[in-house]
Write a structure and sequence with these properties.
Blueprint lengths: L1 E3 L1 H4 L5 E8 L12 E4 L2 E10 L2 E15 L6 E15 L9 E3 L4 E3 H12 L30 H20 L1
Parallel strand pairs: 6-7
Antiparallel strand pairs: 1-8, 2-4, 3-5, 4-5, 5-6
Bound molecules: zinc ion (2 copies).
C-alpha cells in the first residue's frame, strides 16, 4: 500500500486518514527466519501535519506462518504493533523514528515490514518450551523421546567424567 501524500504536501489538508488490508506476497524481509506464508494484515492510521512536519500514526495487526526454528513444525505468529514516526525526504537521515518518503509517496507496507522485523524474537519457536528435534533421527522431542543416541551421549559423558577425575588425582 503506497499512500499519496499530495493533499498534505500541497497544503490542501492537514490530516490524511487511511485504512487498508493486505497479505505479504514477498516475505524476503523475513529472510533470516523461515516464513511459510502471510495471513491477512489490517492497518489503520493517519498522517498529520504538525507545524511544518509530517507525522505518521499507524496501528496494524495480522499473522504470519513460520517454521519453528527448533522442531521444524509450522506455527502461527500473531503480529501487531503501533508505529509513530516523523516523515522526511532526507535520505541521509538515519534516525530510527524517521520514515523516508519520496515523490509525495509513502510506502506503508515497508513501514510495517520494518516494525515487524524489529519486534520479532531472535528465535521463532512454536512454544517457549519446545524441545526441538533429534539431530540424528529427526524425531520431534515434543512428541516424546527417541532411542537412537542416548547411549552415545552417556558414554561420552562417562569418559569426560573419567578424564576430569583422572586429572584431579594427578
Ligand atoms: Zn517447535
Ligand atoms: Zn533420535
Amino acid at each position: 500500500m503506497v499512500l499519496d501524500l499530495t493533499v498534505l504536501t500541497s497544503g490542501k489538508k492537514e490530516k490524511l486518514e487511511f485504512e487498508f488490508e493486505w497479505t505479504f506476497e514477498d516475505l524476503g524481509f523475513l529472510r533470516q527466519h523461515s516464513p511459510i506464508d502471510s495471513g491477512l494484515f489490517h492497518a489503520k492510521g493517519q498522517v498529520l501535519k504538525i507545524s511544518e512536519e509530517f507525522v505518521l500514526q499507524l496501528d496494524y495487526s495480522g499473522s504470519l506462518n513460520f517454521i519453528c526454528e527448533r522442531c521444524l513444525d509450522s506455527l502461527e505468529y500473531a503480529s501487531s504493533g503501533k508505529v509513530y514516526k516523523a516523515l522526511s525526504t532526507q535520505e541521509d537521515e538515519e534516525e530510527e523514528d524517521v520514515v523516508i518518503y519520496s515523490d509525495h509517496q509513502l510506502n506503508l507496507v515497508e513501514v510495517v515490514e520494518d516494525d515487524i522485523l524489529m519486534n520479532l524474537p531472535i528465535q521463532i519457536v512454536c512454544k517457549q518450551t519446545c524441545k526441538g528435534i533429534c539431530r540424528t533421527c529427526g524425531k520431534n522431542f515434543n512428541e516424546g523421546p527417541c532411542t537412537c543416541n542416548t547411549e552415545t551421549i552417556d558414554s561420552r559423558l562417562e569418559s569426560l567424567k573419567n578424564f576430569f577425575n583422572n586429572d584431579e588425582e594427578v
